[in-house]
Write a structure and sequence with these properties.
The structure holds 2 protein chains of 2 kinds. Chain A has 9 helices and 10 strands. Chain A is of the alpha/beta class. In chain A, the strands form 2 sheets. Chain A has a 6-stranded mixed sheet, with helices on both faces. In chain A, strands 2-1-4-5 form a 4-stranded antiparallel sheet. In chain A, helix 4 packs across helix 5 and helix 4 runs parallel beside helix 7. Chain A is globular, with a radius of gyration of 17 Å. By secondary structure, chain B is an alpha+beta fold. Chain B has 2 domains: 215 residues, no CATH class; 190 residues, no CATH class. Chain B is 52% helix and 17% strand. In chain B, a hairpin with a 5-residue loop joins strand 7 and strand 8. The chains are: A alpha/beta, B alpha+beta. The interface between A and B is medium-sized, with 28 and 26 residues.
Chain lengths: 219, 460
C-alpha cells in the first residue's frame, strides 16, 4: 500500500539572479514495510526531494500525497509532527541537552502517550545501543555514532509510518554504518516506510528499492 | 514546552545569569519606584491629616503680585488701590454659601479683610508707638468667629488676654484689638472707639477683647500687625457699604470638612461647580503645598524613573532576546523539524523569561527594601534642601490689597517609610509581566519568519 505518492513534482530555487530547477517531473510512490534508497551525486536534488518529502520545504509545483491526502492540506507542521520522522546527516540534536532529553523533547512535541516517558526513552535508546549512562550525558560529549543513534531514537518515539533519513551514515565509520543500516532494515521489516537519501552504494545495496536522481530527474 | 524552558534556563547558565542580572536591576528599580511612590502618597495623606480638615478659599493674588512687580519695575511706584481692587476677584456670597452645601463641609467661617480709618484713636507706627502723621489706617477683619481665624489658631501668633471675651456671628458693634494698640491709646475692655469708612460713615464699637501679638513678622510700611482689628462680619460689610442680608462679597472663607483626606475631592468638586475657582479664586493650601512639594517632586521623579525603566527594559530585553534568538536559530530549526509550532516556541522563550523573572523578583523582594529606602531618603533630602533654599520668597497675604513677605514656618516631612507592601509587589509583578510580554512580541515575529529548511541547511 502506498503511503507516500509524489506526483509531477517540480522544484526551483534562486541561484543568484537565475531560477534553477532542481527537481523535474518526479513521480514516485513509497510503500509501507519497504526500505528505499535514493542515490545521487552532490547537487543532484536528492536532499531537496527529502526536504519536500519531510515537509521541511514547501511544495511549489506538483504534489506530495500522504495516504492519499496532499501534505499542503494536512499542513506542513502537522505533517512533520504526526506523519513523518526525519533523521539528519548532522543529527540535528539540541546540543545543550542530554541524549535522553533530546529524545524526550520529541516525545513532548509529538504528544506520544507513554505512561512513563522517561523509562520509554531509556528503553528506545537502549534498543539502539545507548546505555543509561550515555543517555544521561550531554550530546556533545558522546561519539558521532552515539549521536546518530540518539537521532534515530528520537525518530522512533512516535509511531509514524514514514522514516526519512538524509545521509544517516555520512559521518560514521563502516562498522557503525552497517549497524545503522541494520536498524533501518529492521524498521522496514516492522512495517515502516524507510526512505534514505545517500550517495553510499554500500547503504543502498541493503534497500528494497533504489531510485537514482540525475540532474533533477528520477531514473 | 515547560520542561524545555526549564532545561534551557538550567543548562545555558551564561545566558541565564546575564538575563538575571538585567532583570534584577529592573526589578529593584521598578519596586523602588513603586514603593517610593506609595510611601510619598501615604506621607502626603499623613500631612493632610496632621494639618486638619480645614481649607480656605481666597482671592488668588499670584497674578496681582506679578502685575504689581511689573508696574513697579516700569513706573517706579505701586499701582493705585483702585487698580489693585479691580484686579482682585472677590468671593461672592453665592459661591461662599454654595460651597457650604457640599456633603464634605461640616462648618465654615467667612472673613472680610478691608481697611478703615481710626476716628477717635490713633494707629501705631513701625516702632510700636502712636502714629500721629499717618492716615490713621486700620486693617479690619470682619468674621463670624475670630477664634477660628488662622491668627488665633494653633499655629497663630495672636492670643486673647484672660479677661477678654469674643464676638460671634450674632454680635454687633463689638471689636477685638491688640493689647499694644489699646495700651498706647489708653483703651481697655468695655471702652468704645469709632471707625470710619472712606465715605465718612462711621460706626462705634465696644472693645470686648484684647489680643497679645507674638508675631515675628517684620512690620513693613503701613502693614503693622498691631493695627489689625477684628469685628463681626456684618459690621465690616456695613462699614464698607455692603448689605449682609443680600448678595455681598468677602475675602476668604474657611471650610471645615468631615475628613482631611476629603480635601482634594472637595477642591475638585468645587472647581467643577464654580469656574471662578481656579480663575481668580483659589483654595489656599499654603502649608500643605509647602509640606508636600518635596514629596510631590519625589513622587514625580519616581514616576519618571518607572517610565524610563519600563521603556529601557523593554528595549534592552527585546534586543537581548533577538540576539539570543540568533544564537538559538539552529535549536528553533530542530524543534520546527520535529513538528513544533512556532507559537509554542515563542511561548517557550516567554516561559524561560518568566522563570528567571520569578526567581529574580523574589530575590529583589529581599534587596529592594534597602534600595528603596536609600533612594527615597536621598531624593527627599535633596528636594527638602531645594525647597528650603527658595521658601523665603513666598508671599503671604495681609489685608485687602496689602501683603507682607514672610518666611513660611513649615515642618517638612524629612523621612518616608519606604517598605515593600503586598500591593507594591503585585503592581511590580504586573509591570514586570508587561515588560516581559512586550519584550517578547518582536522576537516572536522573528520566529514566525523562520523556515526550518533554511535554518538547517545553512547549518549543515
Amino acid at each position: 500500500m502506498n503511503v507516500i505518492e509524489v506526483k509531477e513534482l517540480y522544484h526551483k530555487y534562486e541561484d543568484g539572479q537565475k531560477m534553477r530547477t532542481v527537481l523535474k517531473d518526479i513521480n514516485i510512490d513509497f510503500e509501507e514495510g519497504k526500505f528505499y534508497a535514493i542515490l545521487g551525486a552532490s547537487g543532484s536534488g536528492k536532499t531537496t526531494l527529502l526536504s519536500l518529502l519531510s515537509g521541511l520545504d514547501t511544495v511549489q509545483d506538483g504534489g506530495i500525497l500522504f495516504e492519499g491526502k496532499d501534505i499542503k492540506d494536512i499542513g506542513y507542521t502537522k505533517y512533520r509532527k504526526e506523519n513523518v520522522n526525519v533523521i539528519f546527516q548532522s543529527y540535528n540534536l539540541i546540543n545543550y541537552m542530554t541524549a535522553l532529553q533530546n529524545v524526550m523533547v520529541a516525545m513532548d512535541i509529538k504528544k506520544v502517550g507513554y505512561k512513563n516517558k522517561k523509562e520509554k526513552a531509556y528503553e528506545i535508546l537502549e534498543s539502539l545501543g545507548i546505555d543509561k549512562d550515555t543517555a544521561d550525558r550531554d550530546v556533545l560529549k558522546i561519539s558521532g555514532g552515539e549521536q546518530q543513534r540518539t537521532a534515530i531514537a528520537r525518530a522512533l518515539v512516535h509511531d509514524s509510518k514514514v522514516i526519512l533519513a538524509d545521509e544517516p551514515s555520512g559521518n560514521l565509520d563502516d562498522y557503525t554504518e552497517n549497524e545503522i543500516v541494520k536498524i533501518f532494515k529492521n524498521l522496514a521489516d516492522q512495517g515502516k516506510c524507510v526512505i534514505i537519501v545517500t550517495h553510499s552504494s554500500n547503504v543502498a545495496k541493503h534497500a528494497d528499492k533504489i531510485y537514482e536522481i540525475k540532474k533533477g530527474k528520477i531514473s | 514546552m515547560f520542561k524545555r524552558a526549564y532545561i534551557s534556563v538550567i543548562k545555558n547558565k551564561g545566558r541565564t545569569i546575564i538575563l538575571a542580572i538585567l532583570l534584577f536591576v529592573i526589578a529593584n528599580l521598578v519596586l523602588a519606584s513603586i514603593s517610593i511612590k506609595s510611601a510619598t502618597q501615604e506621607a502626603m495623606d499623613q500631612a493632610r491629616i496632621s494639618l486638619g480638615p480645614e481649607i480656605t478659599l481666597t482671592t488668588d493674588r499670584t497674578e496681582l503680585f506679578d502685575y504689581i512687580k511689573e508696574y513697579r519695575d516700569t513706573y517706579g511706584v505701586k499701582p493705585s488701590q483702585d487698580v489693585i481692587n479691580e484686579l482682585l476677584v472677590p468671593i461672592t456670597s453665592d459661591i461662599a454659601y454654595g460651597l457650604t452645601e457640599s456633603d464634605y463641609v461640616i462648618d465654615y467661617n467667612f472673613s472680610y479683610s478691608t481697611a478703615s480709618k481710626a476716628v477717635d484713636f490713633l494707629p501705631l507706627n513701625a516702632d510700636g508707638v502712636l502714629d500721629t502723621y499717618n492716615e490713621s489706617k486700620i486693617s479690619i477683619v470682619g468674621t463670624y468667629n475670630p477664634l477660628l481665624l488662622d491668627q488665633f489658631g494653633e499655629n497663630g501668633t495672636y492670643e486673647l488676654t484672660s479677661e477678654s471675651s469674643y464676638f460671634t456671628g450674632a454680635s454687633e458693634n463689638e471689636i477685638i484689638i491688640s493689647d499694644t494698640l489699646a495700651y498706647q491709646n489708653s483703651l481697655s475692655i468695655g471702652d468704645t472707639l469709632l471707625l470710619e469708612d472712606f465715605e465718612l460713615d462711621s460706626m462705634e464699637f465696644t472693645i470686648v477683647g484684647l489680643f497679645l501679638n507674638e508675631s515675628t513678622i517684620v512690620n513693613v510700611g503701613k502693614n503693622i500687625t498691631d493695627n489689625e482689628v477684628f469685628i463681626p462680619l456684618d459690621d465690616a460689610l456695613l462699614l464698607k457699604g455692603q448689605d449682609p442680608d443680600s448678595t455681598f462679597t468677602i475675602t476668604s472663607v474657611k471650610y471645615y470638612l468631615d475628613d482631611p483626606l476629603n480635601i482634594n475631592s472637595f477642591i475638585s468638586e468645587s472647581e467643577a461647580e464654580y469656574t471662578e475657582i481656579g480663575e481668580g479664586l483659589t483654595f489656599s493650601d499654603v502649608n500643605y503645598d509647602a509640606i508636600i512639594a518635596p514629596l510631590e517632586s519625589v513622587a514625580q521623579f519616581s514616576d519618571i524613573v518607572l517610565i524610563t525603566v519600563v521603556v529601557a527594559a523593554v528595549v534592552i530585553l527585546t534586543l537581548l532576546i533577538i540576539n539570543a534568538l540568533k544564537e538559538r536559530k539552529y535549536e528553533i530549526g530542530v524543534l520546527m523539524s520535529l513538528g513544533e509550532e512556532k507559537i509554542k516556541i515563542s511561548f517557550q522563550y516567554l516561559i524561560e523569561l518568566l522563570l528567571v523573572s520569578a526567581l529574580v523578583f523574589t530575590l529583589a523582594m529581599a534587596t529592594s527594601n534597602s534600595v528603596s529606602a536609600y533612594l527615597g531618603d536621598t531624593l527627599l533630602e535633596n528636594e527638602i534642601s531645594d525647597a528650603s533654599s527658595t521658601e523665603g520668597d513666598s508671599p503671604r497675604g495681609g489685608g485687602m490689597g496689602s501683603f507682607t513677605t514672610v518666611a513660611l514656618d513649615v515642618e517638612y516631612i524629612d523621612e518616608i517609610d519606604v517598605s515593600i507592601t503586598v500591593n507594591d509587589f503585585l503592581i511590580t509583578l504586573g509591570i514586570g509581566s508587561m515588560i516581559i510580554i512586550l519584550s517578547s512580541v518582536l522576537p516572536s515575529l522573528y520566529i514566525m519568519r523562520y523556515q526550518p529548511k533554511k535554518i538547517l541547511s545553512s547549518r549543515n
